[in-house]
Write a structure and sequence with these properties.
The structure holds 2 protein chains of 2 kinds. Helix content of chain A is 35%, strand content 15%. In chain A, β3, α5 and β4 form a beta-alpha-beta unit. Chain A has 6 helices and 5 strands, in the order βαβαααβαβαβ. Chain A has a domain at 5-54 and 102-158: 3-Layer(aba) Sandwich (Hypothetical Protein Ychn, Chain: A), CATH 3.40.1260. In chain A, strands 4-3-2-1-5 form a 5-stranded parallel β-sheet, sandwiched between helices. The model of chain A has no long low-confidence stretch (mean pLDDT 93). A 4-stranded mixed β-sheet of chain B has the order 1-2-4-3, with helices on one face. In chain B, a hairpin with a 2-residue loop joins β3 and β4 (68-74). By secondary structure, chain B is α+β, with helices and mostly antiparallel strands. The mean pLDDT of chain B is 95. Chain B is built from 2 helices and 4 strands, in the order βαβαββ. The chains are: A alpha/beta, B alpha+beta.
Chain lengths: 159, 76
């Protein structure tokens, strides 16, 4: 079986949007794909040693709220202080209860499966991020490096 | 004698963990050996069919047993 290739661009740094790249990358490698993820802009949060990503109901009308809060709770209420950390905590608890892996665990499984992680050098510079804050094994590069792999990929996804 | 060589209990785990655990278990097995997998994620039924198709392993059995999903996967 010739090895298929999957290229992913991960651009979002929230608890919910951290899942698609890591779930698809780890699964694809279990299916025999060679996988590379290019992390850019807010997606770089997913590479931090101490991943502190959150989920917000603010500006996210599709997010199911506990206790049917979305039915009677005014939209502006989603902006009150503490709402984001409360929702993040509730989401994490729900995930745990349903046997959904943590982002850290999926990221580790990706690394075990030799998924290649590339951090966008431009964004790292732009936001003055400390390369030491990232997990080991991350490579730094630019758009051309992404295309070197993506140009040969069977599937390319932007998330 | 059991009709499998190794067992994997993925009960309570959700997508994609059953697949990832199965892949890991199969990696440590010999060709021809059979992995007995137990899962509770209903999505695992279609996922293990697709996994077998794409990896060349043989899904010898897939059934529901007392609210759990049970699979026999033979390594190619």
């Amino acid at each position: 079986m010739s090895e298929k290739k999957l290229a992913i661009i991960a651009t979002k740094g929230t608890l919910d949007w951290g899942y698609p790249p890591f779930i698809l990358a780890s699964t694809a490698s279990a299916l025999g794909y060679q996988v590379e993820i290019f992390f850019t802009f807010y997606g770089l949060q997913l590479l931090k040693k101490k991943m502190d990503v959150q989920v917000s109901p603010l500006g996210n009308p599709g997010m199911p709220m506990p206790m049917a809060m979305d039915k009677w709770f005014p939209v502006i209420g989603t902006a009150i202080p503490g709402m984001q950390s409360m929702m993040t905590m509730m989401m994490k608890n729900k995930m745990k209860a349903k046997g959904v892996a943590s982002l850290e665990e999926l990221r580790e499984l990706c690394q075990e499966a030799e998924v290649r992680f590339i951090a966008c050098q431009m964004t790292v510079d732009l936001f003055d991020m400390n390369p030491k804050a990232f997990i080991d094994g991350v490579e730094f590069g630019g758009a051309a490096l992404f295309f070197e792999f993506a140009g040969e990929a069977d599937i390319s996804l932007f998330m | 004698m059991a009709d499998f060589d190794q067992e994997l209990d993925a009960s309570g785990l959700n997508c994609p963990l059953p697949i990832l655990r199965a892949k890991k278990a199969l990696a440590g097995m010999e060709a021809g050996q059979v992995l007995h997998i137990i899962a509770t994620d209903p999505g695992a039924v279609k996922d293990f069919e697709a996994f077998a198709k794409q990896t060349g392993n043989t899904l010898k059995e897939s059934k529901e047993e007392g609210g759990k999903f049970v699979f026999l996967m033979q390594k190619n």
